[in-house]
Each structure stands twice: as structure tokens, then as C-alpha cells.
Amino acid sequence: AQSVAQPEDQVNVAEGNPLTVKCTYSVSGNPYLFWYVQYPNRGLQFLLKYITGDNLVKGSYGFEAEFNKSQTSFHLKKPSALVSDSALYFCAVRDMGGFQKLVFGTGTRLLVSP
Amino acid sequence: ETGVTQSPTHLIKTRGQQVTLRCSSQSGHNTVSWYQQALGQGPQFIFQYYREEENGRGNFPPRFSGLQFPNYSSELNVNALELDDSALYLCASSLDRVESQPQHFGDGTRLSIL
After folding, report:
1. Cα–Cα distances in Å, from A81 out to A43, A78, A89, A111, B93?
2. How many Å apart are CA A101 and CA B47, to the nearest integer?
3. CA-to-CA distance for A22 and B32, rounded, in angstroms?
């Protein structure tokens, strides 16, 4: 069964510094990977996806993610963090059961300090 | 383009009652998925509807049921409510069950069971 792991419950970074939110995955076959962000009392907003092709994927709000097949990782990155980036971030993998089931990690809370 | 809308935003029920949650999919989307997000957890897949038929289900008991209507809107019904059903219920829509397409989420319905 497909799964993802987010090893950090919380990541703290100062505004203007680069940020990384980690995700590792376990799949049979080629992975379809996604990052979503959740602000308080809101649903999930799609940031970016990796399906195939370039290992560096660019997404919304200046975020990007690096796919590393040998390390089975899909880390979310941003060169310069903003206070407004503070939120809950979820990594997800598509279950390959023939329909669009997403399997989510437990989430990482990003706190950007001024 | 209209996004995914869910109603109601909040709901309080007591154990043993029944509840119906509603979702309007994003314009042009014919696939709807429902997820349960317990406090401090990632979303868990409940089921998916495509063209008015359930075509995938997660590890949830039969008292969780759903419907999809010809306009692709959807309902989630939960019977015999239990305390553990307290959660944020998220609806997500997408196009044609295409596995590479991201799902777009509504802001959810927060269900509290007393």
C-alpha cells in the first residue's frame, strides 16, 4: 500500500530564510506525489504535484519540490519564507487502486517568525 | 470558475443521530471524493463518486454512505453517530478520475458529536 511520512511535526524558520518541509514516500510503481497547504479553519489548497519529468517541480506561491527517487523523498522548499507561509503542510501520494484516492501524511506545521 | 463549496460549515449532533453533509463540486468536475480529518491528523479517504456511482471506498463502515447527483454535487450521510465521528469532513472534486489531476478541496464541515 502507498504511504507517505512527514518526519517533522513542526518546522520553525525566520522570515527571509529558505525553508524545507520533508516528505518520504513508499509506493509500488511510479509515484504520483502532491503537496497541499491548510490554513486555520480552511480546506486544503493544492500547491504542486510530481507525475513525471523534471525532478524539480515548481508550484504556487513560490514553492517548489524536489523529487528524489533514490531517497524516495519529495521535499517541499521555498527560497525565502514569508510570515504568511505559516500553515499546516501535507504531503500526499496517489493510491494506485484505479481511482483518485489520496493518502496523506500526518502534516507538518510551518511557523515563520518575523 | 466556482470552487468547491460545502454546507453547513459547522454542525453539532449527539450520539446515535444521523447527519447529511453537502458538497457542490468545482465547475466542470465530475468526480467527488470525501475525506475525514480528525484533529491533528491528515485527511483519511472515505469514498469517491464518479458519474453518480461509488467507485472507490476507504476503510469506513457502511454507516458512512453517499450520493452524487446529475449535476455532480454530492452528499455524505452518516448514521448512528459516534463520538469518534467528530472531525472535519472535506469534499474534493476533480475531473474524470484522471490520476494525475489534483483534487480541489472545499473548506469542510466541522462535525462535533456530543
Report:
1. 22, 6, 14, 10, 30
2. 8
3. 29
Task: Return the residue of B nearest to A37 by Cα.
Answer: B105
Residue A98 near chain B (CB below 8 Å): yes
Compare CB distances from B55 to A34, A90, A99 and report the shortest one's residue.
A99
Contact yes or no for A106 and B43 at CB 8 A: no
**What is the tens place of the pLDDT at every residue in A6-17?**
999 999 999 999
Q: How confident is the model at residue B114 (pLDDT cuts 50, 70, 90)?
A: very high
* B16 vs B98, residue with greater confidence: B16
Which of A100, A102, A109 to probe the B interface (max B CBs under 10 A)? Answer: A100
d(CA A38, CA B18): 28
- Tell me whether residues A100 and B97 touch, CB distance under 8 A: yes
Decide if A101 and B56 are in contact by the 8 Å CB cutoff.
yes
Q: What is the number of other CB atoms lying within 10 angstroms of the CB of residue B80?
A: 11
Asked if residues A54 and A1 have their Cβ atoms less than 8 Å apart, the reply is no
Q: What is the pLDDT of residues B59-112, one digit of tens each?
A: 999 999 999 999 999 999 999 999 999 999 999 999 876 767 889 999 999 999
